[in-house]
Amino acid sequence: MITDTPSSDQLRQHMADHLVRAGRIRSKPWRAAFLSVPRHEFVPDFTVRAQGTLHKYSQGDPAWLAAAYSDASLLTQFDQDGTATSSSTQPSLMAEMLEALDVRDGDTVLEIGAGTGYNAALLSHRLGPGHVVTVDVDPELVAAAKTRLRSAGYEPTLVAGDGMAGYPERAPYDRLLASCGVGRIPTSWRDQLRPGGVIVANIGCGIVRLVLAANHSADGRFLHGLATFMNARPTPDAMGTTAGRLVQPLLTWSGQAREITLPVALDAPGAQFLTSLLHPRVADFALADGDGRQTRCLFDSESSSWARITMTGTGVMTARLDHGGPRDLWAEREPLLTQWRDAGRPGHERYGLTVSPDGGHALWLDEPDGVSWRLPD
């Protein structure tokens, strides 16, 4: 029972019990890790987004300790536009991904995205610090994580560098966990993994678990939970284009126009899952005018292609499409959404991913040799 002023030990116990009851922690070693590692020591200052509002907490605030052990993502760094660039992942999602790694005693894990260092501490508790390597692009984050890890009694290998390149100096690894979003699985990750090794990573808004084959291909299914991590970036200054900067241009640009009929509602979770896999680097957000009319905006920064899909009200799924640039983003999306509708709108957990030896990515439904779609590079 938690008192009015619970201790950090009580809060960790409560968090671990909650994760066990929710089925996110399914093994004793991971329960022991969550019970032992002090999450609050890794997040002296953070922000929680709840119901569209940001709530800030700092060490010493009355609600800080309890908030540090809530099942929430704790935002710990922002860029000049106010976009979050680092966080401590929601514990339930963290536990789900750690369990999916299926580590064994003696395994070596490469973590991409050190963040606060809390996840590296959990891995270190489970496997021993000598079996954990964690990489982050931001040297300041790495330095802070190293200090906090040492204070908590863990000293894994921390590297400031491009996580997309992995860390070949300690390869091969048995497991790779990416706590950042990636558009595609880099070849370097597969190069640094032993055959039979496991990759757990966020692509689009799905979490995929892949097993590396002897021929260097990787294959596996998506986990039940949906999530979107902060995207991996090659340098600390390479921030993504924010929706705030795009709103005005995308509402005013003029280009080619045509009337379209949407095969499905674009805000359906299944539709968002599929389009995030097809276009992981495309900014995608919805706006509503004063009458509640929805406009969907898409922008690909690499090609400067854009699309604006505005519901017209002349039919249930009728919309006006305005678009420009060398790519017709809607024409690329429409076939996959139509196939999803015609298949009966299957849940995302029925999908899987195959990465071929040459690095190509194929999305499939139910079985690898069943209905599949080649994803663009």
Structural class, by secondary structure, is alpha+beta
Gross morphology is globular
Q: Approximately what portion of the residues adopt beta-strand conformation?
A: 25-35%
- Biggest sheet character: 10 strands, mixed
Q: Any idea how many domains?
A: 2
Discrete helix count: 10
If you consult CATH, what is the topology of the largest domain?
Rossmann fold
What is the number of beta strands?
Answer: 19
List the helices and strands and how they pair.
Blueprint: H1 8-21, H2 28-36, E1 45-50, E2 53-58, H3 64-68, E3 74-78, E4 84-88, H4 91-101, E5 109-112, H5 118-127, E6 132-136, H6 139-152, E7 157-160, E8 173-182, H7 187-191, E9 193-203, E10 206-212, E11 218-226, H8 243-252, E12 256-261, H9 269-278, E13 282-288, E14 294-300, E15 305-311, E16 318-324, H10 329-342, E17 351-355, E18 361-365, E19 372-375
Parallel strand pairs: 5-6, 5-8, 6-7, 8-9
Antiparallel strand pairs: 1-2, 3-4, 9-10, 10-11, 11-17, 12-16, 13-14, 14-15, 15-16, 17-18, 18-19
Helix pairs in contact: 1-2, 2-5, 9-10
Question: How is this structure best described in words?
Answer:
The chain has 377 residues and is α+β, with helices and mostly antiparallel strands. It folds into 2 domains: 8-226, Rossmann fold (3-Layer(aba) Sandwich), CATH 3.40.50; 243-342, Double Stranded RNA Binding Domain (2-Layer Sandwich). Helix content is 27%, strand content 32%. The protein is built from 10 helices and 19 strands. The strands form 4 sheets. It has a 10-stranded mixed sheet with strand order 7-6-5-8-9-10-11-17-18-19. A 5-stranded antiparallel sheet has the order 12-16-15-14-13, with helices on one face. A two-stranded antiparallel sheet has the order 1-2. Helix 1 runs antiparallel to helix 2, helix 2 packs across helix 5 and helix 9 (269-278) packs across helix 10 (329-342). The protein is globular, with a radius of gyration of 22 Å.
